[in-house]
Amino acid sequence: MLKENLVMLRNLHGYSQEAIAEKISISRQAYAKWETGATVPDIEKCSLLAQTYGVTLDSLMNGQSAEGFGDSMLAPRGKNIWGSVTLNDRGQIVIPKGARDKFGLRGGDRLIVLSDDEGIALIAAERFEENMRKIMELATLMNETDEAVKWQTL
Description:
With 154 residues, the protein is mainly alpha-helical. The chain has a domain at 2-62: lambda repressor-like DNA-binding domains (434 Repressor (Amino-terminal Domain), Orthogonal Bundle), CATH 1.10.260.40. The chain is built from seven helices and two strands; from the N terminus they run ααααααββα. The chain has helices spanning 2-13, 17-23, 28-36, 43-53, 57-62, 97-103, 125-153, and strands spanning 111-115, 120-124. A two-stranded antiparallel sheet has the order 1-2. A hairpin with a 4-residue loop joins strand 1 and strand 2 (120-124). 10% of the residues are buried.
């Protein structure tokens, strides 16, 4: 798993073997041996690799299995890739169990659907509404501050 992850991450980030070896202060030949599985890096070098690639040490070493994505999915630190879902004829999907468990989602929960040009995202309605309330309070506070500054300059 490690050797495949090293090859995939290096290619995803556009590094040559020489460039990544230089970043972690080893020879290109030593790095090449890690990618072929002839040798493995020590824990300190693994930690440097994980930092360089922006992944956790665990995902660097083990990867994540995700339906529809093969055996090795390396999400950036703090992010998750839950796998693929299929949209049914009524436009419905089943959210993967791991995601439901992580976010405490249960049948009947309300979700807000957000999007940009790249795709869609879901967020619990209560969390979205709380965030919007905070944004509105901040905007009101900023507006009041701006008005106070205008009156002081008159």
